[in-house]
Design brief:
Length: about 270
């Protein structure tokens, strides 16, 4: 990762930054692949799930055959009360690193640089960590400490973590459940419909009804494009076209300067 000072100068104010949000297995990675194909000049940062499945000690990049220290995703699903706090520290750290990465390319003249992240430091807190606390898997002590360092980091990196918009992929939890089963990721074998219903409600509270209390007004005011992905768009070019047109119009409507800082705390 670049130094704080270097990344501050490289990230500030350049282009438009979006995050794709949505329930587990709603189709974010699939949709992001579609975005890459439709807008090859956009920079896309996938969620680093493979790093969570094989946590490696810090240092020079380990050989890909090294076993790592364990599968944190699996540990979190198997023993949520033991591993959720650890998981949230690591998932948030990886999202922070991704959002602070300097822009990898310079946009050509007259072209807006668009960066798309799969989930964000915001969903880490306002969807997953919040839900784990409400479900009793994060102790009050852990939730209070998580929020303390989360808010501190947002303030420390003020401006650099701003997003100009959210693409919220929405489908009923039952549809996500079917897709999750169809995908068959081994760690998710025990995931129940109830968990997806809870996560659906957290997304709705945060991005639609705005019932979730957030650390800043800026985050609350960040525009949200709601995309209905209940239908199978994978093998339907007309459905794909419809979704992509909505994204294009939304991105064009965003002004890099128009929105107050999502990372500045309100206090
Ligand atoms: N619109 C769709 N219709 C039918 N199947 C879909 C659709 N979108 C994705 N899928 C399938 O659903 C499964 C989950 O999709 P994907 O991996 O893109 O979800 P995700 O939201 O990125 O998941 P996660 O939350 O775990 O990161 C995959 O098997 C994919 O092929
Ligand atoms: N607890 C928890 N907190 C997160 O911030 C988070 N982000 C993603 N996930 C889980 C969902 C998929 O199984 C898998 C891939 O998205 O990882 C998370 N789980």
């Amino acid at each position: 990762m670049a130094s704080v000072a270097a990344s501050r100068s490289l990230c500030s104010g350049a282009g438009k930054r979006l995050s794709v949000e949505g329930n587990i297995a709603v189709g974010k990675s699939t949709f992001v692949t579609l975005l890459r194909r439709a807008f090859p000049e956009w920079q896309v940062a996938p969620e680093p799930v493979s790093r969570w499945q094989k946590v490696q000690p810090e240092g020079p990049r380990q050989a890909s055959r090294s076993p790592g220290v364990g599968n944190l995703l699996q540990m979190m699903y198997q023993e949520p009360s033991r591993w959720s706090y650890t998981f949230q520290t690591y998932s948030c750290l990886s999202r922070l690193k991704a959002q602070l990465e300097p822009d990898p390319v310079k946009p050509s003249k007259g072209q807006d640089l668009v960066r798309v992240f799969e989930r964000s430091v915001y969903s880490d807190r306002y969807v997953f960590a919040k839900n784990l606390f409400e479900g009793g898997h994060l102790a009050k002590m852990e939730w209070v400490i998580y929020q303390d360092w989360h808010t501190f980091l947002l303030q420390a990196f003020e401006g650099q973590l701003d997003l100009h918009g959210f693409l919220y992929l929405r489908a009923p939890p039952e549809v996500c459940m079917e897709r999750l089963r169809h995908r068959g990721r081994p760690e998710e074998r025990e995931v129940q419909l109830r968990y997806l219903q809870q996560l659906h409600a957290q997304h709705e509270d945060w991005l639609v009804t705005k019932k979730t209390e957030t650390h800043s007004e800026g985050l609350r005011d960040t525009p949200v494009l709601l995309l209905d992905v209940a239908k199978d768009f994978e093998s339907d070019p007309s459905e794909q076209g419809k979704l992509l047109r909505q994204v294009k119009t939304f991105v064009e409507s965003l002004s890099p300067e128009a929105f107050p800082s999502a990372s500045a705390a309100a206090s």
